Amino acid sequence: MAEEAACHQFAGQVLVPTELLDEIIGGDALVPKHLVSLRERVNISWEALAVTAASHSDVTKAVVLIRSRGEVSFVAANGLVPWRRGSPVQPRGPLDRALQLRSARALPEMYRHNLGGAQELFCDTLRVHDRLAVAVLSPRRSDGGLSILNPAEPTWKEREEFCAWCNAERDVGWCHECSGQRCRECERCGCDVPISNPVCPRCFLAGPIQTGSEVCVDCEADSPC
Hints:
- The chain starts with a helix and ends with a helix.
- The strands form 2 sheets. Strands 2-1-5-4-3 form a 5-stranded antiparallel beta sheet, covered by helices on one side. Strands 6-7 form a two-stranded antiparallel sheet.
- Strand 3 (103-111) and strand 4 form a beta hairpin.
- The protein is α+β, with helices and mostly antiparallel strands.
- It contains 5 helices and 7 strands; from the N terminus they run H-H-H-H-E-E-E-E-E-E-E-H.
């Protein structure tokens, strides 16, 4: 994901002159129509354009591409936790309806819906055609109105998770990729999941077995010291 973003950023720097960005965006808040205007002037992928536009200024924002209803196709974030492509969006929110509505402006939207680092932002959307909509999310309203949003409590603070490897609780820090916390014992996160649990030779059930042990963690816990 980082390599892909770097490639898009390089392409944007080569194909989109800073002068053109200043001409079209200027000192205004970035909105979807700016992206459409830029795309009409340069032959560049929407992904590369999203990365270039998101990093044009230091303002916290995210440029989102929607190609299928209910999920993000690509997200270029500036000052925000990354949002993996294919992640679900908030049901009935502006991103969820981006392919149905012609446009939306300054509507509340949950960035990283139901994931760690979730944050409510203002969202502008514009449908380019039936299979593509572009959106810009930011803490600032694009219409100049008062920017007041309710901060979202990250999901990882509320849910209990256990390591698939050693069965200890995952409650240390959190991973941007899987939006989960790390194991307090082995420091693995949700990105590290065993293909399958082996069958314990004592209880004959499939379960996690710690490194160096011959039985599952449940049987090990029941064994006398």
